[in-house]
Amino acid sequence: MNEIQFKIKAFLAKFFGNHDLQPDEDIFALGFVNSMFAMQLVLFVEQEFNISVENEDLELENFRTINSIAI
């Protein structure tokens, strides 16, 4: 796991408790995610990595797993 994936996993661990989330595990399929969480996740990505997530990038597929977020 690289540094970006590690930071994403650490952020997600705050919400997933004791579940050891794997890099390719679908966080939406686990049922822990709601619209408020999705907004927090986008905000985290933008702030942590100093990027802007554009409207066209706001697709579930881009935020479904640690690996898809890290790309």
Q: Helical content, roughly?
A: 40-55%
Give me the number of helical elements: 3
Q: What is the total tally of β strands?
A: 0
* Integer average pLDDT: 94
Q: What's the order of the H and E elements? A: HHH
Overview of the molecule:
The structure is a single chain. By secondary structure, the chain is mainly α. The chain has a single domain (3-70), classed as Non-ribosomal Peptide Synthetase Peptidyl Carrier Protein, Chain A. 48% of the residues lie in helices and 0% in strands. The chain has 3 helices and no strands. It has helices at residues 3-16, 35-49, 66-70. The protein is globular, with a radius of gyration of 11 Å. The model has no long low-confidence stretch (mean pLDDT 94).
Concise synopsis of the structure shown:
The chain is an all-alpha fold.
List keywords for this structure.
71 residues, mainly alpha, Non-ribosomal Peptide Synthetase Peptidyl Carrier Protein, Chain A, 48% helix
Topology:
Layout: H1 3-16, H2 35-49, H3 66-70
